Prior knowledge:
This protein is an alpha/beta fold and about 230 residues long. It has eight helices and twelve strands.
Amino acid sequence: MVRILLVEDDATVRDAVAAHLLRAGYDVQTAADGGAGLKAYTHGSADLVLLDLMLPVMGGLELSRLLRSLRPDLPIVMLTARGQEHERIAGLRHGADDYVTKPFSMRELELRIRSVLRRAARPTGPVVERLTDGDLELDLVARSATRADRPLALTAREFDFIAFLMRQPGSVHSREDIIKEVWGWDVGDTSTVTVHVRRVREKVEPDPGAPVRLVTVFGHGYRWDPTPAEGS
């Protein structure tokens, strides 16, 4: 059974979400503030965390950062009453895989959870088991990544994003296409892609300010340029 940790200080929202997810077949643990959320995770772990942005004791952004330090690929969905773009971007920068803006429908929340869990699940039998580009290697079965033979900490969404691009080197993908193929959204805020591009570049580029792998094709989208083979 999938275990979800819900960290939400509003008791009405917390109880309603927990009750719905329990009826949907999830094992749900709740916490009312960031400190209690961190303690609950370290004591019991979770397969996914639903995390309110505005929390007492420890804010959602700080808790997200700490959870990522414990498990880089932990699926995190932010819950926030704030609709401003800069708040959503802040959540994504701190490791959220997705976000839902309050007020939200329980059906929407459940679909978002399923989408994130599906993306985080290990593939059952991929034709290609590894993707390699220079010093960067993705193990699609173990869902792990290394760069220069050192483990590379990626969120589940970052891993999927890189794998999607590496499977089609040299092809240009619009932000709308990436939202659909990587996030599974037919409609979504494309600034989400922009944030992930910035985060991925910080992890895979020799110089994130002058990217040579994940490059921007102005007016069209993004392209993965393979690292030239030595001697070529």
